[in-house]
Design brief:
Elements (H helix, E strand, L loop, with lengths): L4 E5 L14 H12 L3 E5 L4 H8 L7 E4 L4 E3 L5 E4 L4 H14 L2 E6 L2 E5 L4 H9 L6 H16 L2 E4 L9 E7 L3 H14 L3 E3 L5 E5 L5 H8 L4 E5 L6 H4 L4 E5 L12 E3 L2 H16 L1
Parallel strand pairs: 1-2, 1-12, 2-3, 7-8, 12-13, 13-14
Antiparallel strand pairs: 3-4, 4-5, 6-7, 6-9, 9-11, 10-11
Helix pairs in contact: 1-9, 4-5
């Protein structure tokens, strides 16, 4: 007896780009996949609210792995599990980040909190400069980062983490070498899981929590097709029967026999083709 087919996909950089909403074409193809009995799961670094913001109006059911595995939702939007960072660890991490004067976000069960900075625009422009091009290109990239960081988030100066249930901490900085140093230092401060979803961030979750561990909690068995583009998708690739990547991706994923695609629609058509091959 054949297993049920499960399509697990990252969102940013895989099914959408530049923080845009899922396209109408992608929604239509996903609806077709669902109507054929394919189970759909979105696995993202976003929280559940920000996931739904980019999905928009859709006509199919899906399960969700959010905050890189710290939150799990079933197809009826019921919370199956939430894993929080230890409060004492959060305090130590935040004390360290405050000394470095870096931009960070706390993903909590009461919404997202962004560390307030007086030089916010300067930091955004530095992030914009990571995309080489004209001044207009830099400004547009900075606007994308503004949306990514500040949309639906509270900006707070002098953050007090006591009393907060924190699912994930995200650090964003334009200096890649600084991020590498921070990762090494944070791993020495306390036992946590640290990954990245793009070149200029670090994402901190509870120890041994990742997208793969969440998927194990969510499903019993199945033929698993995974699409992703970043290091934080690696734990999913280890579980997959078939892996699909966009052309722009973290090279750490190239250790797998991936199908390389050009755009989100091609990713979804490839899922359709692989599902048909499996069912044949």
């Amino acid at each position: 007896m054949k297993k049920k087919i499960i399509f697990v996909s990252d969102i940013d950089g895989t099914l959408i780009s530049d923080g845009n909403e899922l396209s109408k074409t992608s929604k239509r193809i996903l609806k077709e996949l669902y109507s054929k009995g394919i189970q759909i799961c979105f696995a993202t670094g976003r929280d559940y609210k920000k996931l739904n913001d980019v999905l928009g109006d859709i006509e199919f059911k899906y399960s969700a792995i959010c905050c890189n595995g710290s939150e799990i939702y079933d197809e009826e939007s019921n919370v199956l599990n939430k894993n929080y960072l230890d409060n004492s660890k959060c305090e130590r991490i935040i004390q360290y980040l405050e000394k470095l004067d870096v931009l960070y976000m706390l993903y909590t069960d009461k919404g997202n909190v962004v560390r307030g900075t007086k030089d916010r625009n300067t930091r955004l422009l530095k992030l914009g400069e990571t995309k080489q091009g004209s001044f207009e290109d830099i400004v547009e990239e900075a606007k994308i980062y503004y949306k990514l960081i500040y949309a639906n988030s509270r900006e707070i100066f002098n953050i007090d983490s006591s009393g907060l249930n924190i699912l994930k901490i995200e650090i964003i900085d334009s200096d890649v070498y600084k991020l590498i140093e921070m990762k090494q230092a944070l791993e020495n401060i306390c036992d946590i899981s640290i990954t990245t979803s793009f070149k200029y961030n670090l994402e901190i979750q509870p120890l041994k929590i990742d997208k793969g561990s969440a998927l194990k909690d969510l499903i019993d068995d199945g033929y698993i097709i995974v699409a992703g583009d970043g290091e934080n998708d690696l734990s999913l690739f280890k579980m997959a029967d078939c892996t699909i990547v966009p052309q722009k991706r973290d090279t750490i994923l190239d250790q797998y026999d991936n199908i390389i695609t050009c755009n989100p629609e091609e990713i979804l058509r490839t899922v359709e083709e692989k599902a048909e091959e499996y069912d044949f």
